[in-house]
Fold these 2 entries.
Entry 1:
Amino acid sequence: MESFAYAAPATLDEALDILKSHRRRKVRTQLLAGGTDMLVQMRTSDREPRVIVDIKKLKETNRLNVGGKDTYVGAALAGVLLTADKQLVARHPGLVEAVDLIGSSQIQGRASLGGNLCNASPAGDTIPAIIANGGVCVIASANGTREIAAEKFVVGVGRNALKPGEILLGIRFPKPAKRTSDAYLRFIPRSEMDIAVAGAGVSITLDKSGKCTAARVAIGAVAPTALLVPAAAKALVGTRLEPAALQAAGAAASDASKPITDKRGTVEYRRSIVAVLVRRAAKIAAERAGALK
Amino acid sequence: MAKVHVSTSVNGQHTEFLCEPNESLLDVLRENLQLTGTKEGCATGDCGACSVTIDGTLVCSCLVLGVEIAGKEVGTIEGIAKGDVLHPIQQKFLEHAALQCGVCTPGLIVATKSLLDSNPKPTEEEIRYYLAGNLCRCTGYDKIVRAVQDAAQTMRGKRA
């Protein structure tokens, strides 16, 4: 293929057909949502011509539903639509916090959860928050729909679990149990417009007495992919998030991390700071969970 | 390369153009439509000089494909003034000397309008966060923030 082409299918069947027919002819395709990563890559690291398949016209990628059983966030919905949705903010405040941390107002006018997952940056801010909320990726192909846990979706730096011919339609989150909430924190050396040195998403469930009965802890920017850290969650369950429990959870996150040294931070610094972020995010999530009825 | 025919609306006017499938909206505006008020700074979505609105949402036009705006309403700096009458935001940027070289100014004015359309009475913190994606290397931002505050007050007065 010598030149770019663009397609904006109106239905999922049409989108899947486009992927299939080009694959048969060995023509490269790439799915486009908000494009805030992809367009930059198209001009720098990856200039190869391809057929751009815009998935923003599909109803499945544009649906936002904060429902009785679960929450569904279409993969192509721009961040501004998520931060503006009061029901979503009330149910998954940490997730929306992560969305709100990404880029400028302009970037949030386009950037999506689906794009953040598919771009698969180790430092993608929404990814630990999605994992902490038990997010499940809803993936369509010509053979039907499959679902995989968000922590299995990103498989390496810049690599995701989509097979040729598949489309990430959206992310489904189980409705949080009573007295459950979440938080996402990241560290950057300034107050805005930067890429995480480390990040932590935590979801906490409390019983009526304030004891933690369930937790999910996920960390970002400290390994090739965001990591779910069951040992950190285990350190919190059964406790009232006393300082010792928070310390243990932070230490477990540090142990699970596999950071690198780069211009944003050293291995030692990232290991240390990710523990702090886990402790603080757990505390915020628990405060929010306690404040809920 | 096969060019794509796109039919859209720019600043309320029906517009048609031909563009390459991988051409940015920024290039389409500047090269194909001769709307050169929108500036290219970084072309990576970091500086905000190319800010425009699409169906009322603020975006960087360098991170949008021209082909994507078919059937949409695009708003650029050229659509802000009413003929020869400057918009209050433009007037206040002049009065407060909120610009020097001017390259960031169109983007800042488009972004400021987007902010004040949804939040007529922003705090200084809200202004600074909302405009954090518009880089200015001349002013140090204080004059811009004061111009935005003054413009907000003027616009609220006009609404009342």
Entry 2:
Amino acid sequence: MTLRPSLAAVGAALALALFAAAPVLAQGGNLVVQVSTEPPGLDLTASPASAIAGVIFYNVQEALIKVDRHGKLAPWLAERWYTTDSKNYTFFLRKGVRFHNGREMKAADVKYVLDRAVNPETTHPYRVQYEAIKDVIVKDDYTISVTLKQPDAMFLWTVARQGSVIYPKEAVETMKSQPIGTGPFVFSDWVRGDRIVLTRNKDYWVKDLPHLDRVTYRFIPDANSALAALKAGDIDVSAFGLGPESVDELKKDGRFQVILGDTTNDVTLSLNNTKKPYTDKRVRLAITHAINKEEVLKGAMFGYGKILGSNVDPLNPYFVDVSKRVPYDPAKAKKLLAEAGYPNGFDAVLKVSPQYSYTVRSAEVLVNQFAKVGIRAKIEQIEWGQWLSQVWKDANYEMSIIGHAEAWDIGNFANPNYYFRWDNAEFRRLYKESEVTVDDKKRRELYVTMQNMLADEAPAVWLFMHPRLVVAKKGVTGIWKDLPVPSFDLSEVAWQK
Amino acid sequence: MRRYVLRRLAALAVTLFFVSVLVFVVIRVLPGDPAMIILGTEGSPEAAAQLRRSMGLDRPLVVQYVEWIGRGLRGDLGRSIQYDVPVASLILSRMNVTLPLALLAAVLMIAAGIPLGVFAATRHRRAADYIAMTVSQFGVAIPGFWAGLLLILLFSVKLGWVRSGGFDGWGQGLWPGLRSLILPAVALGLFQLAVLARTTRSAVLEVLAEEYVKTARAKGVAEGGVVFRHALSNAMIPVVTVAGVQLGQLIAGSIILEIVFYLPGLGRLAIGAIGARDLPVVQGVVLFAASMIVVINVLVDLLYGVLDPRIRYE
């Protein structure tokens, strides 16, 4: 008898405490978000540019499955799915979800989206990932089954990615400039060169979301201008615009909150494995031993970010830290170089594109570190278009630095034609096996083996994970800390009351 | 006069033809494939080849050029790859920003630069001359982008009088539009103002040493009349020549200030289009800018005749 009231009191007190701790969110309001790059079109199925995803993905258009803020797959436009063999999938669609043009989303729309992705005529940037699809069958308005040519352990991730957003067939021709989807915001206006405006979707299928009435993305390419705009109060959030050099100053400023998180962007020192002396594993390992990654991180990113040991980023569920396998050891680097026939080191050219300032900053630190073991590296800065042509397409390079932002891209090392030009039969076998291994435990083991192998073979050197850096006015809540997908999800973002 | 104008118009057509060939070839010779830039490091070479085909970039250069110039003569400059809108309308929408910006800067340059130069010349080798020239030296030495940042820090961040950048269009009214352009116009015009002040000073000084100025003074013409009617009007030929060149430079110089003040102007359009290899836009903007500069030069030439009746065009 006496226990009941006290339990109730504790419960009430707990509820009160929770209520007091949770911020009270305002319904409505406007938000001005700064981004440095204007999207090259707004069609997620025409270009993989992360600038498009940053505006459209999860805000205007959504997929059957969502990668949540923790990097986990969550049922979304499909409320559930079913597979026994990772070859035959059945998706059950959520009922009552409407596109921004008022029409209800049905299974026929999903079929149209997947068929179009497979069709080579439509130049879908990720077509390779959909090539496993053999058949898409509409069972009824809310049920669709997909049959693959062979089991594909990555298929659910493919369905969750930005290229798999569901759009109405009737809007396909105008997606480049007027995207329509099922998301929490409706595309309203794109003033080329200046801003994109999204407004609240009043009929959004998730109850009570979104909070904001209106979101304006402003394109401010210059980091100094973005900082000034933030301080002048002209923007509320800087999403992808500020450099790490501003972090300390902004942390001390009581008007702002600095959000530092993880991303899938692994900044890589790429090596051309078909060019001498990089064909020699001992040379590649010597290069790795010669690099003090902590120093590189300090020099390039003011210490923000995480040291990496392989291509797999910390947001990947199979991530293991292999950064200590080939540690900083200049003496060992020199010894390995001597063994490989380069006791006096060698000359090298390091091609980087100043479009991404971290690449040039990293290169400057690396050149100094290389000099200590006898590698005489010279930095060559080239424009981004040239970089894509010379380095990435033609592999006309020795060393380069770039951030690989794609999640789940370990397969690049299983592709001998990729610009690393690394051809290792054992790694290719492991990767192929991982693609068809459905059992999670076995798949994880394969991923661990692959990460260790990458560290030990050193076909490239993984320097650090580029941090996510967002600065917002105090009072803005709901922004994702980490960035497992290149989206800037504003559905839960609100102003605190 | 009419024949002169017609001759200049013919020269304009020839210039634009060469510019069109040059820009068409140069942008295609540049390393960097538009399809690959669109797809980035995530697109496969096959996808890039397919995209190139769908954009018509796999056809011979001559065929591409003839088609482009043919459509261009009918007023169709093509469609932007990244923006998916007609290039002509894109250029016109950007001129809403760049033209008023350049005009504001030009007004500042002329309204302040010429009086400053005359003021310094009439006080030759006196304290006021040295002060005026020191001030203009600062104007020449301070790069526009830095002046822009300093102005933002003072008037937007510290005082909060104007926005730090951006442009919401003329739809909101004349004053909000102008207010967004004042700081960039000052930053843009500062350098040219200083150059014009120095040019005016030298030109006026030279004329002031002429015999006819001495004659005017001997006849008892008031000093104001000497300076403005006799000296300045005769010094205007070099001043107008420099100012004409400067007008072109103001349009070119607006690129960097459009970036600092994040204004959606023509310069930023050009820079973005070059980076993205948005070929129709690059071609359209370069042709447009080239024709503007040629037209300004023709106008300056015509102005010579107005300023100096001795100059004849026939």
